[in-house]
Amino acid sequence: xxxxxxxxxxxxxxxxxxxxxxxxxxxxxxxxxxxxxxxxxxxxxxxxxxxxxxxxxxxxxxxxxxxxxxxxxxxxxxxxxxxxxxxxxxxxxxxxxxxxxxxxxxxxxxxxxxxxxxxxxxxxxxxxxxxxxxxxxxxxxxxxxxxxxxxxxxxxxxxxxxxxxxxxxxxxxxxxxxxxxxxxxxxxxxxxxxxxxxxxxxxxxxxxxxxxxxxxxxxxxxxxxxxxxxxxxxxxxxxxxxxxxxxxxxxxxxxxxxxxxxxxxxxxxxxxxxxxxxxxxxxxxxxxxxxxxxxxxxxxxxxxxxxxxxxxxxxxxxxxxxxxxxxxxxxxxxxxxxxxxxxxxxxxxxxxxxxxxxxxxxxxxxxxxxxxxxxxxxxxxxxxxxxxxxxxxxxxxxxxxxxxxxxxxxxxxxxxxxxxxxxxxxxxxxxxxxxxxxxxxxxxxxxxxxxxxxxxxxxxxxxxxxxxxxxxxxxxxxxxxx
Length: 482
Ligand code: NAD
Fold this sequence. Notes:
By secondary structure, the chain is an alpha/beta fold.
């Protein structure tokens, strides 16, 4: 598999079907994280640009909502067909802009995004609800599911196109119009997707505004013309978004950070569990909100299990994402690399780095795959989201201690339990305060299934029927029978 360099799109705003530069005064640059070199630059946007995009979306919404579910679905399926036929361009953009290893992007991430586009194109044709009936004597009542109006999407850099698609497609399918704000360091694939989608949509149905989060994202979250803000990003920004949205109030979906626990009991097949868990820890260089980061291992097998983890970490091929042999690409930016390195450097003296921990001597923003043991529950490496190719290890002596360690953080996005005892597996996942839990697996994601966290990982669901329903409002209609 050879890397084909894509055409880097011009980053501009799409407002009411027209491509226009942002009206801000700053120039923002987009870097290739694999080399540190500049890919392109663009003008920042202002709150006035956001006003224009929201006005365009609001004006286009009644016409889009008036189409039948079938008509909207047909337009979205046309996007799906064209996207699937041009997948290699999007693979190239995600490799260059987000540092995705070519093989993972080609075999997993981009085909999965194409599947998501296809799934959401049809999903709003089968909305469900409570049966009509005489819940009050003399009146037949039924519910109607309506679009909300204008949905604002604010996306992160770790899955730039994936996140944009999971917001744009279900929102449009349900009859909303959309304004999307990509992460300013990874706008390329979303801009290219909007250009593709625009050919199949009426003007104003899909709009895009590029720029800083504190300006564009903040203006969108609190905008009186927006009905729902769907945000994926850090917990700190999620708090700002929720506060801004509360002013109107706008509805909010918050898909925030995580630091997933991985509980390993003493009855697992050590080699196969270690291999699967390392794969789920290092996917996307660990910049994955559900990454299998936090090992919590039965003390009777901990040494053997950690040896197997180290063996697997040593098999990783760190390198240029455009090389098909690379299995571990760079972190997204110098800032992200610094942040992760500081967490490692500030580890307690009682801890041990069993593998990695260093920045390799090469351009770009790379970090060796790392495993750190000997940590306590209140250490930053346990309490904070690391968001890099770093795993931590703690041990437990019984089931209740394992659950307490797993639940003993503020986050609540994802976690897994590894055991051959299915009753124990069920007991433990039932006790976990996490929105996505797996037994003998980790990172099971599909557009058919709802994703969403608890606690500091946010609220609301993306994906599945619940994820479509988030982009609708329910109206109760009662008809007198007299
Ligand atoms: P971030 O919060 O820094 O930025 C996310 C987006 O918010 C960007 O578009 C940014 O420009 C914008 N933004 C920044 N400040 C803002 C403000 N004050 N108001 C409005 N918008 C603002 O997050 P990031 O660093 O880009 O992404 C990584 C984070 O995303 C991690 O914490 C990760 O766990 C999380 N994430 C969560 C999920 C999930 O499904 N729960 C999925 C992917 C990523």
